[in-house]
Amino acid sequence: MINSPVRTSEFSFIGVRKHFWKEVFYNIQLFEDTIEMTEIKSKSPKYILPLRLSTVIEITGQVSKNNRNYSGFQFKYKDSTKLMNCRSQDIAILIDMVSNQITFLNITMFYQAIEIIGRGSSSSVSVLIDTFSQEQYAVKSIGKEYLLKNDKLKILFENEVKILQELTKYNQNNYFVHLYKVFESKTSYYLILNLMKGKSLTAFYHKIKKQSDTKLLSSEIIKTIMKRLLSGVSILHSHQIIHRDLKPDNLLFLEPNNVESLAIADFGLATYSNVEKYSYPICGTQGYMAPEITHYKDGQIKYDQQIDIYSIGVIFNWLLTGDIDKHNPKLQKLDSITFNLLNNLLRTNPKERLSAQAALDHPYFQNDDTTKKTFQSQYGYENVDGDTIVQHKDLKNYSLPLLKKPQRQT
């Protein structure tokens, strides 16, 4: 006989439900994937709530500045609503521990709206203030009516939430926007996110452009931005996540004027690469889309995470020259190392592009002068014409140029 493994709860507390003429006490346990409520003296749980987006609970009580007086929580179970009364401090801990894994009701109990800072065709982004802590957050609101238009839109939304939930585990360095909680009302879903106080890379670029005589970012700022971007994308790709809409507007700064706080945002088009079929395979922003997306036709073999690498190449080109034209004359002023990295991000054939990690290993990011001199001696200015690829263990040497360095004018 094989014994089932012993499950250890991450948190447990006591709750009380009123059953007609008496009160019944429950042992409430939070496990890795469920909330389970078991009557005292019983061995089997009576109520089991899976930790997923479709599980909805409503916290009861009152919240004000520096004061939380929770009385319990309500949940749907077999077509009826159940109320569980609990100590306020236990509910506070439960909320923090399940955080973004389930959906909450009654957003106005916890947050107060301040202002709308962005609006799209299907969603809006606003600034909120936490009623209890007075801290500011961002909220992305998505209308349910929009999601009901077709199943693909709903799948995209569920992917976005699932991916943001997963990235919480790998976001110690704040490479991504952080999802704190998910709420819903009769008309909308609400994603509570950290507030990016530094705005977008686009806004930052134009601000620097106005202040600078050269109208371009410094090489050190560009290098920091690219390193942050590639580091974040390397994590995404290692977990089979494709962003599919990388562009300056979707790169935000957590802190004003701090390029080391750059974070990847807006996962509304993101997908897992290991799914059988992508929802909306042709998506993204014109100019930043890889050729294999632009020319994609139903029935073709799926593209992969290398589409993000192409988008990063376009962003790099924009940072270096001020636009996304791959034939900008300003490219002739780039040093050979910088141009080589750019070229190997923008290859037409996705198999020829560097991976995110390989790009981070490129001499462009090395501070070792010996490494740079060795590279320059092997691949001088006149040789870096699009045929040269830095050797990495995950690459072969190809000779199909996409981007040739403009010829010097004589």
TrEMBL record:
ATP binds at K144. GO terms for biological process: mitotic DNA damage checkpoint signaling. Pfam families: Pkinase. One of its GO terms (molecular function) is protein serine/threonine kinase activity. GO terms for cellular component: cytoplasm; nucleus. SMART domains: S_TKc (SM00220). Residues 111-365 form the Protein kinase domain. Transmembrane segments: none annotated. It comes from the Eukaryota. Keywords: ATP-binding, Kinase, Nucleotide-binding, Serine/threonine-protein kinase, Transferase. PROSITE patterns: PROTEIN_KINASE_ATP, PROTEIN_KINASE_DOM, PROTEIN_KINASE_ST. Belongs to the protein kinase superfamily. This is Protein kinase domain-containing protein.
